[in-house]
Specification:
heterodimer, A: 274 residues, 7-stranded mixed sheet, two-stranded antiparallel sheet, 10 helices, B: 251 residues, 8-stranded mixed sheet, two-stranded antiparallel ribbon, globular
Amino acid sequence: MKSDKSVIEVYSPIAKAWMHYPPPARPSQEELSFYEECILKAASKKDIKVLILGVTPELREICAKHKLDVTLVDICQDMFEAMKELMKYKNSKEKFVLANWLDMKFDTQFDLIIGDIVINLFDLEDWKLFLTKIRSTLKKDGYFLTRLMLDSPLRKKTNLNEMIKQYKQELQVGNLDRTAIIFSDKEICNAKTRKIDFNIFNKKLKEFLDKGAITIKEYDALKLLVSTIPVVAPIKGYFEKSLRDKFDIISLFSGKEFVFLKYFLVYFLNSSKI
Amino acid sequence: MIQNQDIKEGTHEGVPYTYYDSKGSDESDSERIALIAPGMGGSRKDDVIKTLAQRLGEERISSVCFDIQDNEEVLPVEEIVERYQKMGEFVRGKGYQPGQTGVFGTSLSGLPAVIAASEMGSESLGLKSPLLYFDEMVEGKIGEEGLRAWKRKGCIEKDGNKLPYELYEQWKSVDKKELAGSLARNQTQVRIVQGGADTRVPLPFTRKFYDLLRGQGADVDMRVIDEADHEYTKPEHFAEAVGYLAQGGEK
């Protein structure tokens, strides 16, 4: 079965550009080390079955490196194949299942489920449903390992003007907290649904370019590369509250490599409570 | 009925705490825990904090009480919130998950407690005479000129405590409506107790936050003790305030 045409249209440019995406669009080196550490902890049991939500090549490579039995589930098979081309280590044990994460069904349960920025793709009202699905797809003492984008009430209120000023002084994108602008701007991040429209960020930035306030070079450096997929990012507590009765937090990690990584947390969760 | 409450002193990641480990009659651990902080210039060993921890123990709820000041200088909001989070990590190490953790704030620790509860997805939030609109209170009291003088000096003294100017800026920058929305979304049970005769944190400011929470659809209850001052000086006021918070409020 091949993927739906509209899905391919959205995702295929992502596959082509993937290796050029900087964090947080892809997991950072520190985050990948944490992912690997947790995967190894879960793999201390023999012959574990791993399910990857999506086709993230970096996660597939870690599993390939440790020769793990992996199933991938995604709504786009072409994306699965395209991302495989980017992998240095390939896994002959990889199986692909074409399905939506909320509808996926398997004959078996898994020891470990991994997914990078997966729950953020659902509306808030589906978060508990998604976690219930993950819980039922896992074995009783299984693990769920996932990175999320989450907001904090302590974030500094800022705007594009301030960011442009800072960029002109430092000329470094890595020190800029574009995420804080996204969360501060109610047009970009809807206060109620917490849905983020990255296109509005780029549209607003384009207005600065059109006014001559920034150069095309500055525009290219500052614009967000992932603009096609909206994400939903509430304050951290919403996720932790949603875990109740489903998962225990074993550990969580946030990278220090870039200032914006404080809004990206990697959770290592255990389903042993039930 | 509680059989015993082990009390241990310790320090976790630089934060001194007192841990009230409540066990039921069958010696099993309690299923819930409260993180409790005092107000400005207060200590985890103050009567009100100790009594609250003991009363919670009667409900089989363990507590971790911790300080929010190391000396006379009041810590920035984010550092107080960080202390709540460190205590959250500490109790997670004891097996308590965020859904089993309640947060309590008193006076100055009111706003940090609200932020921490929102960040941690806490089950419940108890607030005693919480200072939530410090920025507006200060603006009303000292005016623009006073604020400029404070900014120039960097720090002012109040009741033997040093208040850095950044405290005002931080308080002002926190979006209270967003916080109220977050607590509503998380379905956190909020219980507020407030003295009607409180001159340090006047009732209208607390009512303003209560109304904001209600407007956002949060699960909130407020008890106003008419004659009570900020310190709940009269024993009957003190008992009512602590009893109300310990019981999680009466609807």
